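Treating backbone geometry as a discrete language has practical consequences that deserve illustration. The sequence in question and its structure tokens are set out directly beneath this paragraph.
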Amino acid sequence: MSLSPGDPSSYSRPDHVKTTHIHLDWDIDFEKKILKGDCTLSLEKVDEAATSLLLDCKKLDISSAKLDSTGEDLTFKVDGDVGYGSRLEVQLPTGCPKSFKVVFQYSTTSECTALEWLTPEQTAGGTHPYVFSQCQAIHCRSMVPCQDTPSVKASYSATVTAPENITVLMSAIRKGSPETVGSKQKFSFDQPVPVQSYLIALAAGAIKSKRIGPRSHVWAEEQFLDKAAFDFSETESMLKTAEDLCGPYVWGEYDILVLPPSFPFGGMENPCLTFVTPTLLSGDKANADVIAHEIAHSWTGNLVTNSNFDHFWLNEGFTVFVERKIKGRLHGEAERHFSAILRWPELEEGVNKVFGAENPLTKLVVDLKGVDPDDAFSVVPYEKGSTFLWFLEQKVGAGDVLEKFLKSYYDKFKYQSITSDMFKEYFLEYFSNCDSVKDIDWNTWFYSPGMPPFKPDFDESLATECRGLAARWQEWDPSTDCPFDGSEIKGFSGGQIQEMLNTLMKGKPLSVSALEKMDSVYKLNESTNVEIIFRWIRVGIAARWKAILPAAVDLVSQQGRMKFVRPVYRDIYAWEEERQVALDTFQANKSKMMAVARDMVAKDLHINP
């Protein structure tokens, strides 16, 4: 069932009444773990005959809805709960003007899925509580009564009151210094660029900042600040490269917030303030490509947006493609190719093992009627989507031909939300004189499940040596003298070590004795790069090496990034002898996990969260 004609995941009807601005006036209550206050929606009738306002909400405690101009109480009801949201219908008064405002007095509840509340003990500093939000895909409705669909973009402003010694940040421009209100502080924000609801973001805690560029600060708990400033020191170079590729950066500031470890994603492209996981802090900038990814979202996703999550690849496939373009310009085309090589096995695993090659959720354009978008979240729109753009690049010719098209595409559709067919139509119009695009099988790309019908002819120069080393380990008989002494990986980048482990994961599991020797000569368990540790753990589990289990339990217990947590839980669960370790570890740690990660891991373990 589709909740509305324009978005299967939203009850809102922007074709009747559309939001133009949102103002939030919140007080953060750490004791009750709620936000309370007002939400004022500036609205405009699209259909003059509209008699009600349809919004999305989820487990909100709404005490009143008033017409701002008169203070008149408006009748409202909440119904139609589908698990991932409910319909909020507000009756409009007779004679309601075309442009009007509705003020909701409300609070969030303990069932809010957008907010993660941490006690002081759960933070690095250990002295102050912390709260942060994650609204994508459709969790803003549990934090704000709104038209929670990416087809609606509105500017927003906010005032947020918090206890002293707490710094509040949002996905907006900070306005002046905080104002003292009794024993609390009031922070003000403004986001003049229209954004979709899932980009409204909040974080509050004992957060400090350090400037890392002319338009960038890094924010973090003090313990992470210097590490973050080092690992993300190339941010301005990435921004300038992205502007060369995509056009002007319209958001003003580009700050980065390093969140506590329970954040379930690598990064979140909240405008003006990218949220990132502390698992990126490797001490060698090896994982800073996530910053390139989130910077790319400033155009692909934030400026030009999928109209609903059936078309999520328009956000993520484009972003991966641009991220790698940035990397190629900064570090060479071979690095662009190698970045794609590293992620190809993740696409194969996602399609062939996690979902199954015939699963409709492996299509580029999916059908989410009756499906929670969180359940559809996977690597597919990222990697299959970027592969399609790589294919189109080869079709239109070498050089910067596709880059020039993409820059024009961002300009044409900026501040808009679009469908895959709108992209297709503009592409064919732009390349109407290009014969090579006339035989593109759009239906297969958009609507066929499984792996892409095309794999790029990657430059494998950076992969050859590390794959060769993996083959030597696979061929070695541990009953003979060991030919390895640790020097083999001295010149490897973090990515090359990852590719060596990727190669081992795809082959027959190594023997336990071989892994014990590899552990002694390479000491991979001591790496500061979680991407390496993650793969090393999976190689060990595949070999049923019991000595790796403490590292596996530690990885899923110490951070909540789904990229790492879900595969490791699935791997342990598949090891029948140790399945209870996965179940017990999840039960011990689920209270520290954000709702989306907790629910998805529970499904991986075939239990209720």
